[in-house]
């Protein structure tokens, strides 16, 4: 098998990664702008492939997990014109070996299901909670080979932006803290950083505790841009997997 281009299209950013039968290559992140054209996406993809030393026409498939419907036709046209291959969308063209017990299965984000599949194939624990710190913070619950449902909470960056844009004096902060012990801030920036990082970690720990009443001894996996920041002070996150969705796309494609 040749190279495969993997895309995880989220509401804020789109992660892009080349892969082959041996695994994942380097990942890149571009802002998701559905208003851009297929050519714009194609030229950016060409630049990534050139940097990786890969000929565009050696890419055999473009595999996408997308939660941004307006972007889908652009990626499809880009794949045909620039890569001379077809775009393969999770859920429509590529089915996942995971039972979906959601009340309306078609409403589940492809990224959530791909992350759950990746965790299911990686860990032996019967009960899993997959947390994605993205535009929203999501907790997906897996029991056996079934996605049972989950929780959707505000995102860390979304909350930070809402505070900065909705108030006169609160700034946008960098979400960094000096240690893993909570301390009151002595500047506005410290107050925000401590409140957001420890606040979200406490929210996650509390929600995992409550979900544990329904799923015994869950193994908690975290992914997403702010996962490392929150995990450093969380008591319930067991492992970080920054490339969890990409790993799931790779597994789903090469195991089909």
From TrEMBL:
GO CC term (a single one): cytoplasm
Short name of one Pfam family: Pan_kinase
Cofactor binding, note field: A monovalent cation. Ammonium or potassium.
Annotated localization: Cytoplasm
Binding site for K(+): 132
InterPro entries: ATPase_NBD, Type_III_PanK
The UniProt record lists the keyword Transmembrane helix: no
Binding site for ATP: 8-15, 135
Cytoplasm in keyword set: yes
Known role: Catalyzes the phosphorylation of pantothenate (Pan), the first step in CoA biosynthesis.
Subunit structure comment from the entry: Homodimer.
Protein name: Type III pantothenate kinase
Source species of the chain: Pseudodesulfovibrio cashew
């Amino acid at each position: 098998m040749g190279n495969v281009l993997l895309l995880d299209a989220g509401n804020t950013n789109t992660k892009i990664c080349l892969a082959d039968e041996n695994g994942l290559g380097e990942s890149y992140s571009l802002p998701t702008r559905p208003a851009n054209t297929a050519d714009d996406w194609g030229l950016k993809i060409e630049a990534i492939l050139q940097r990786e030393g890969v000929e565009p026409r050696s890419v055999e498939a473009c595999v996408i997990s997308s939660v941004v419907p307006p972007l889908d036709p652009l990626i499809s046209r880009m794949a045909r014109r620039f890569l001379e291959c077809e775009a393969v969308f999770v859920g429509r063209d590529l089915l996942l070996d995971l039972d979906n017990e959601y009340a309306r299965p078609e409403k589940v984000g492809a990224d959530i299901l791909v992350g759950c599949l990746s965790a299911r194939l990686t860990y032996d624990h019967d009960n899993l909670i997959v947390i994605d710190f993205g535009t929203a913070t999501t907790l997906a619950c897996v029991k056996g080979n079934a996605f049972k449902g989950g929780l959707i909470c505000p995102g860390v960056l979304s909350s930070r932006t809402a505070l900065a844009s909705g108030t006169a004096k609160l700034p946008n902060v960098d979400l960094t803290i000096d240690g893993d012990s909570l301390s009151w801030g002595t500047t506005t920036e410290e107050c925000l950083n401590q409140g957001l990082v420890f606040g979200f970690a406490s929210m996650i720990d509390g929600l995992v505790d409550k979900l544990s009443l329904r799923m015994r001894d869950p193994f908690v996996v975290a992914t997403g841009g702010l996962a490392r920041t929150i995990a450093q002070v969380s008591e319930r996150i067991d492992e970080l997997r920054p490339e969890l969705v990409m790993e799931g796309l790779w597994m789903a494609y090469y195991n089909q």
